[in-house]
Amino acid sequence: MPRTATLARVDADLAAGRVPMARQRLRGLVSSYPTDLTLRRRLAEVYRLYGEPAEAGRWMYLEEDRDADETSAFEARYRTPRERMRALAWRGPESLAPSGFAVEQLAAVRTACSEALGRPVDWDSTASVPDDEPDAGVGKFGDFLAGAGCLVAVLAMLGIWVNGLIALFR
């Protein structure tokens, strides 16, 4: 669906009180158009309706007229440069940002993340901020659980197959 049609639906959702649907549509638009600061601003407005200053600060982080309390809430929720880099969901080089302030903010977050990881990172993919870092989530234990679950499923299917063969030859 084109951006203008989706924005019209966002307006209709908000007018009808369907704030969660408006938020979902705006999140999709920001994902599709990460360099459009007006979409990020609209998403911040929706989060204000929820009373979520950290998320409003997240989506207004690249705007010069952002609210200081919301910015502080965002920085408190996403404490490390790596978390902020992922939360901002930017793609492409900073030069794609439509304002000098946004370029500076993006460069500062990327530089801080590079310094924290001890190597250069970029915005183009999550591969630039690898999952093998300590705060990356479940890691090896999650991989083990996924493998164990697959093994259990295969053994269950094998048991059903063997029982079927036994029943067939009785």
Automatic annotation (TrEMBL):
The entry's keywords: Membrane, Transmembrane, Transmembrane helix
Record InterPro entries: DUF6584
Residues annotated as transmembrane: 144-169
One Pfam family it belongs to: DUF6584
Name of the protein described by the UniProt record: Uncharacterized protein
Source organism (scientific name): Streptomyces pimonensis
